[in-house]
Design goal:
The complex is a heterodimer. By secondary structure, chain A is of the alpha/beta class. In chain A, 33% of the residues lie in helices and 25% in strands. Chain A contains 17 helices and 22 strands. In chain A, the strands form five sheets. A six-stranded mixed β-sheet of chain A has the order 6-7-8-3-9-10, sandwiched between helices. Chain A has a six-stranded mixed β-sheet with strand order 16-19-20-13-21-22, sandwiched between helices. Bound molecules: adenosine-5'-diphosphate and magnesium ion.
Chain lengths: 512, 309
């Protein structure tokens, strides 16, 4: 199937951001009729390399060859014209515009006045051909994340790309949807496209790719035939010879219920209903896992639980005390802690330094003020203590936190939120985007506070993580709980996937 | 009826300069650039239009040159905000102050002069329609042009390829860039065109409405235009209604004053501005989807292709 001369060939690509090399002299090529996986941990430089290929970033050094001829992509338009197209991690669709408008974005060959019906017909045709069904007239923001991805994939085909890049496409899919995606990718391979599949998940890479290139810290570790390597070898190439710390889940007796949400309904930022009468209960010394595809109401739920989002309906109770409509400060002072997914926005203020970010959370406490003034010495002392305890690597306490790497940023937030004696912890995607070391660290700290008796809600898209950490596991779909498993060990990935796609636990019948 | 028709006709006439500026600002903001320099640009346009007409005796030439000068003035805004990524609010305010000062300074020698200006041009047939005829079709050519422009821009934004590009750039510049659109080019063009229209609105005041140049003669119409963009939720047709509404309140206030009332004049003069505040408050209270969906998501945000988020 594969031919000798590659469709595209990247040679010696170097790209630095603020003096840090995201790509350091990387070679990469893809041939017609193959799926070439790009494997690496978060931050390894996978997206950067592909953004260079697609003309979005200009490389500092390196050359790009197209079927043997050197090309210079100044803008994405050049790359698209050359048949190279990408589904970005965040899709790059315009939410308020319709599917068909997104399809033709940037395309010049549709005349001055747009003919919707002709365009929609083309879309339907292509959609039928690849089994990627979408409603061309729906506004993109109304689509589920999975559907949006379908639109983005369809758009590459619509633009008649030969080289198709998919940046971590499975991160937003249920296991079943991922399988569907794989069959689409195989289809593309058969038709002679060159497919570049980005992932940090070994099993996916093993399943779908013909060759795999491994990146580590911006450098290429190697390119190998997928059939010729085992998962251990791949893992080692990806993370080096570092030992992956195993997370030991310690026994912990689940205690009494401390935090209850009853029939809560809330609206999202667009004023549409995000939660529909959802109930859950957090118990002392227990982790309640919440599985679900991103965008099914998880953010709204977390915000509602910590008092940041008003309830339209329902009630919250903590220690038997009514908390519905209570100000956020009441939640904070009762040691309800929140680890938001959005670290650089809701979690921390990127331009403020470590001390200030710590103070933001505690400034009103008597220990941190001298009359009307801030007691910066006390704040710095406490910040230093938690930074040390959580092993946050930083040049000083006075640097803006945006200078910290992703892992250290998350450690800092965790250090602030898990310090002291948390009673309730609402943690959303706490290990998202972290390397294996930092991930293990974060999980350990969550287990620590669990052991100390905190009631924890862990929201994650990573089923393995949920299965490893949760005492009980719930699945959310479109703002409703599809089911609650008292023993997550009994759950299969298959079953969780179906629940994430909207099949209630009750409908599985006996034996589930 | 005899009272209504003149007031409605005057509403259209005094709404027209605001309408031009509003349409210009809609185009600019749809690309993601906020231009708060409109007030200054209108003033420069008013002076330019008057000056050129005074010297050439051709109002059309005056209007055309005003458009060009307005666009040129907004090239400063485009350069600073689009190319260099300067804060758009600060830059817009500076442009307003510059336009106000410069037009006062340069226009000194023209204060007190008058020009022939432009005459009303009743459209044969149409102007005979009862009520609508005298209100809409017994006006000057610039009014008719503005009618056309409202529909043209609405059609452009919703149904043409360049209009789609413009909206995409204002919604998500990174997604537009990834689709191969040059974000700076689109934003530059939108800013220049918007500036030209604002200047045209200013020139309408001096060349068509009053036939003279008075310092600061826009008296806040540029700001009302900025508010009307929100009032119309970035939609040309709704904004046109808004412009006439405000023009109407202005015209009514003049008439009430002329009829001689015991209400102090400053209170009446406040009316259009009070209405602005009331309407904006009303819209913001109703909040919700309309505004969120109409407002360009990237409005006011500078864009560099290799920046994150
Ligand atoms: N636009 C950017 N500006 C600054 N730094 C960036 C930018 N894009 C990526 N980086 C940095 O480059 C490195 C590689 O990032 P990325 O290519 O996104 O990794 P991956 O896709 O493998 O997770 C990271 O350290 C990241 O912080
Ligand atoms: Mg990436």
């Amino acid at each position: 199937m594969t031919t000798a001369s590659p469709l595209v060939d990247l040679r010696g690509i170097t790209k630095t951001f603020l003096g840090v090399a995201a790509n350091d002299s990387v070679d990469f090529d893809v041939r017609a009729g193959e799926v070439h996986a790009l494997l690496g941990e978060n931050g390894a430089g996978k997206s950067t390399l592909m953004n260079v290929l697609c003309g979005l970033y200009r490389p500092d050094e390196g050359r790009i060859f197209l079927s043997g001829e050197e090309v210079h992509f100044r803008t994405p338009r050049d790359a698209i014209a050359a048949g190279i197209d990408m589904v970005h991690q965040h899709f790059m669709l315009i939410p308020v515009q319709t599917v068909w408008e997104n399809m033709i974005l940037g395309q010049e060959d549709f005349g001055f006045i747009l003919s919707k019906s002709a365009i929609c017909r083309r879309i339907d045709e292509l959609a039928g051909q690849y089994g990627l069904h979408v409603d061309p007239e729906a506004p993109v923001w109304q689509l589920s994340i999975g559907e949006q991805q379908r639109v983005a994939i369809l758009r590459m085909l619509f633009r008649e790309a030969r080289v198709l890049v998919l940046d971590e496409p499975t991160a937003v899919l249920t296991p079943q949807e991922a399988r569907q995606l794989f069959s689409t990718l195989r289809r593309m391979r058969e038709e002679g496209h060159g497919v570049i599949f980005i992932s940090h998940k070994l099993d996916e890479v093993a399943e779908i790719s013909d060759r795999v290139t491994i990146l580590r810290k911006g450098r290429k570790v190697g390119t190998v035939k997928t059939s010729g390597v085992g998962p251990e070898e791949l893992a080692e190439m990806m993370i080096g010879s570092r030992v992956v710390p195993a997370v030991n889940k310690r026994a912990g007796g689940a205690g009494e219920a401390v935090f209850q949400a009853r029939n809560i309904s809330v609206l999202n930022d667009k004023d549409l209903q995000a939660l529909h009468g959802l109930s859950l209960e957090l118990r002392r010394g227990e982790i309640l896992g919440l599985a679900g595809v991103d965008g099914n109401g998880q953010t709204e739920l977390c915000e509602a639980l910590v008092g940041l989002r008003p309830l339209v309906e329902g009630s919250l109770a903590f220690d038997g005390r009514e908390m519905t409509g209570a100000p956020v400060r009441d939640f904070l002072s009762r040691d309800v802690r929140y680890i938001p997914a959005d670290r650089r926005g809701t979690g921390l203020v990127p331009t403020m330094n470590l001390r200030e970010n710590y103070a933001l959370r505690h400034y009103w406490r008597d220990a941190f003020r001298k009359g009307p003034f801030m007691n910066w010495e006390a704040i710095a002392g406490q910040t230093g203590r938690i930074v040390e305890r959580f092993d946050v690597v930083t040049p000083s306490l006075g640097v803006p936190v945006r200078m910290l790497s992703g892992g250290n940023l998350q450690k800092l937030m965790l250090a602030r939120e898990l310090d002291g004696d948390p009673r309730v912890v609402i943690a959303m995607q706490p290990t998202w985007g972290l390397d294996v070391g930092a991930t293990a660290f974060v999980r350990e700290r969550l287990l620590d506070v669990r052991e100390k008796g905190a009631a924890i809600l862990l929201v994650s898209e990573d089923l393995e993580e949920l299965l490893a950490l949760s005492d009980r596991l719930a699945v959310i779909h479109k703002g409703r709980i599809m089911g609650l498993l008292d023993d997550p060990r009994l759950a299969t990935e298959e079953m969780l996937g179906l629940m994430m796609a909207g099949k209630p636990l009750a409908s599985f019948g006996e034996g589930a | 009826m005899d009272l209504l028709v003149p007031i409605l006709a005057a509403a259209v006439r005094s709404g027209t300069p605001i309408l031009y500026a509003t349409l210009g600002e809609i185009i600019t903001e749809k690309s993601g650039v906020m231009n708060l320099g409109i007030e200054g640009v209108m003033l420069v346009g008013a002076l330019t239009g008057f000056g050129v007409t005074y010297h050439s005796a051709s109002p059309w030439l005056g209007l055309a040159v005003a458009f060009g000068v307005g666009a040129a003035l907004c090239a400063i805004h485009a350069f600073l905000c689009v190319t260099l990524g300067v804060n758009q609010v600060v830059c817009g305010l500076a442009l307003t102050m510059f336009g106000t000062g410069a037009s006062s300074l340069v226009g000194r020698s023209l204060v007190g002069e008058t020009i022939e200006g432009m005459r009303a041009f009743p459209l044969p047939g149409l102007s005979e329609i009862p009520l609508l005829g005298p209100v809409l079709f017994n006006q000057d050519a610039m009014v008719y042009l503005s009618f056309g422009l409202v529909f043209l821009l609405w059609f452009f934004l919703l149904h043409t390829r360049p209009g789609l590009k413009l909206r995409a750039v204002g919604e998500s510049p990174i997604a537009a860039a990834a689709a191969g659109i040059s974000v700076p080019t689109v934003r530059w063009m939108a800013t220049l065109f918007g500036g030209g229209l604002a200047a045209l609105g200013g020139a309408y005041l001096s060349v068509v409405n009053s036939h003279m140049w008075v310092e600061q003669m826009t008296s806040g119409r540029g700001w009302i235009a900025v508010a009307l963009v929100i009032f119309g939720i970035w939609h040309p047709l709704r904004s046109a209604l808004g412009a006439y509404l405000f023009g109407g309140v202005g015209a009514l206030q003049l008439r009430v004053q002329a009829a001689g009332t015991s209400i102090p004049a400053p209170l009446l003069l406040m009316l259009p501005y009070v209405l602005t505040v009331v309407v904006l408050t009303g819209i913001s209270i109703r909040k919700g989807k309309g505004i969120l969906l109409g407002a360009p998501a990237a409005l006011g945000l500078p864009f560099h292709r290799e920046d994150r988020d």
